[in-house]
Design goal:
There is one protein chain. It is built from 19 helices and 28 strands. By secondary structure, it is an alpha+beta fold. Helix 4 (about 95-100) runs parallel beside helix 5 and helix 14 crosses helix 15 (about 340-350).
């Protein structure tokens, strides 16, 4: 099938054969993952959309694709508006749109291995108003018309040893067992891939950029566990690491084995376990407790070994990025340099560390107008030259055994305009406002989000993405439950209290459609802070990312004395951390970039 129009037509034909009047295609997998393996890229195959979050709905006479504010421009560039309506979330929900557009009395299909139970209930209610019904399918109709759909990865698991994990998996399983006992539960289903990887101290290579393996786990109240994974993915070393307390099963047996919990009380996470898991457990006679996966908070709250590992990863990654920025600054004004050239060169600098395992996501290498799409992903068709007068935005990260990085910097190609410098400085002021925040325990990211936006708001400006996301320890670059965002931001998370040990990004931005994008991103660690004269312990952020912030884009008069002091202290620390790793022209460049403002 050559065109996306052909694929849409083929799906509609399949829906007729399946006696369905519509179908919902989310961008996820059976583990509710954000980043998915090639076999699960159904939305991209059907529509051409390359973003990391979205949903499509196909009806007999119309089709719609749903994306949030990060993808407003990108979805219009990648998805054909002659065949697809563009719908923004959270302003319009998928279920709300279905309630308004589904044919009266229609049968709308969904794959119960790709949706949460809460979504199923919400969509069922919305369709009921039309006399329409939501129908669970046994076989995904997209798979039926996708002729060359890749197979799931067969890569083997690898051990993440205790020296890097900071805790043994026996200790982690015992803690989960204690939690189950406290909840009065017999077992918990772990279906989120990063939860399984963290709990069992294993990693995998089944999803690009995220070192996880396709598996399910069920942990029992006695601390033993059942791991469901394709047997060919287990090496002798992994089997030995897992030991006798973890029983091994084929991943294909997982769904059927859920029927074995008749009369048991089984916990499952309503956000991270798909509807099919709840359905199978209940059909088998289990009592299902809808509780948050107990790994989520433990994984987000880094232990001292994980924090030390991240510091080491950030230091080497920052040096690679600094070398890259110097190279762009020197080469771009000569002409001919493209966005894809930059992706390759940045990867090469990271690979020169000798320990890069992967990038932590597809590098966002965006010049000029492309920078105005916050999650732009360059390909051969969109690849643009870096031209004089543009801003070049690069958002990238590395996966190392000791940590996961994520950092964004912006460079002017030639002389920036006064407006560019004003907007950049306002973004910087917001970044500093968040970096220097001090707040009491119990404070959540929704309460802090305005710290990063206020300098933009004061100029009648804003940005349409979250300000901060959690980051894993050699795991997912986007990790919950913490998030800094407006309270209604899609995907939730801003209500989660921040706790010492959490790593989170600080990344305000500004985007002018058709012209440029600006974002300044560092990762920060939540730390305890004693305030002299205060009467209670407080929390604050310690910046973990070290790389120069472009001084030619800063309007010094817009910074307060305190903000200038923060920037000078930050750059002094950048020089201290990165300087010993650089030499010659690279070191001279760094010293100039880090001089006091």
């Amino acid at each position: 099938m050559s065109s996306y129009a052909d694929r849409l037509a083929a799906l509609r034909d399949q829906l007729k054969r399946d006696r369905l009047d519509g179908f919902v295609v989310p961008l996820t997998d059976e583990h509710m993952s954000e980043y998915v393996g090639a076999y699960a890229q159904r939305l991209a195959w059907l529509t051409g959309f390359q973003g990391s979050a979205g949903t499509a709905v196909v009806l007999p006479q119309e089709a719609a694709i749903f994306t949030d504010g990060r993808y407003t421009l990108q979805v219009r560039e990648q998805v054909d508006g002659r065949h697809w309506a563009y719908v923004g979330v959270p302003e319009t929900s998928v279920s709300g749109w279905l309630g308004a557009h589904a044919p009266a009395g229609g049968r709308i299909g969904y794959d119960p291995w790709l949706h949460t139970r809460d979504w199923v209930r919400e969509a069922t209610r919305a369709l009921a108003a039309k006399g329409a019904t939501l129908v669970a399918v046994d076989t995904n109709p997209v798979d039926a018309v996708w002729p060359d759909r890749p197979l799931p990865s067969d890569a083997t698991l690898v051990v993440q040893d205790d020296a890097r994990a900071g805790r043994s998996h026996a200790d982690k399983r015992a803690e989960i067992g204690d939690w189950l006992t406290a909840q009065g539960a017999d077992a918990v289903v772990l279906s989120a891939l990063d939860s399984i990887a963290w709990a069992l101290n294993v990693r995998g290579r089944d999803v690009d950029h995220t070192p996880v393996a396709l598996a399910y786990a069920i942990v029992q109240a006695d601390g033993t566990a059942d791991l469901y994974v394709a047997p060919e993915k287990l090496t002798d070393a992994v089997r030995q690491h897992l030991g006798n307390a973890i029983r091994l099963h084929d991943r294909a047996a997982f769904a059927g084995d859920l029927a074995a919990y008749r009369g048991k009380r089984v916990a499952a996470d309503p956000e991270r376990a798909v509807a099919a898991i709840f359905d199978r457990l209940e059909a088998g006679g289990a009592t299902v407790l809808a509780l948050r996966d107990p790994v989520v908070l433990a994984k987000a709250t880094k232990n001292p070994v994980e924090i030390a590992g991240h510091r080491a990863a950030s230091a080497r990654d920052g040096a690679a990025l600094a070398r890259f920025l110097r190279w762009v600054e020197a080469e771009a004004p000569k002409g001919g340099l493209t966005e894809l050239d930059c992706v390759a060169k940045l990867r090469a600098f990271r690979e020169e560390t000798g320990v890069l395992l992967d990038t932590s996501f597809d590098t966002i290498s965006a010049t000029g107008a492309h920078g105005a799409s916050p999650h732009y992903r360059v390909d051969e068709a969109s690849n643009a030259r870096l031209e004089l007068g543009q801003l070049y935005l690069v958002d990238s990260g590395g996966q190392y055994l000791d940590g996961t990085t994520d950092v964004t910097r912006v460079l002017p190609i030639g002389a920036p305009t006064p407006e560019m410098r004003d907007r950049f400085t306002r973004v910087l002021k917001g970044h500093i406002g968040l970096a220097t925040a001090i707040f009491p325990p119990g404070t959540n990211g929704g309460q802090l989000d305005g710290f990063a936006r206020r300098p933009l708001w004061e100029a009648g400006l804003d940005f349409a993405h979250g300000t901060g996301h959690g980051v894993g320890a050699y795991l997912a670059v986007h990790e919950g439950p913490q998030r800094i965002a407006k309270p209604n931001y899609p995907g939730g998370g801003p209500s989660e209290p921040l706790r010492a040990g959490m790593i989170i990004s600080n990344e305000p931005g500004y985007y002018k459609a058709g012209e440029y994008g600006i974002r300044i991103e560092n990762l920060v660690l939540v730390v305890e802070r004693d305030v002299p004269g205060g009467d209670q312990p407080m929390l604050a952020f310690e910046t973990l990312t070290f790389c120069p912030i472009e001084r030619s884009l800063i309007v010094p008069e817009l910074l307060t004395v305190a903000e200038q002091a923060w920037l000078d202290a930050y750059h002094a620390r950048v020089l201290e951390v990165l300087g010993p790793q650089l030499s010659g022209d690279d070191l001279a460049w760094l010293e100039a970039k880090c001089a006091p403002l």
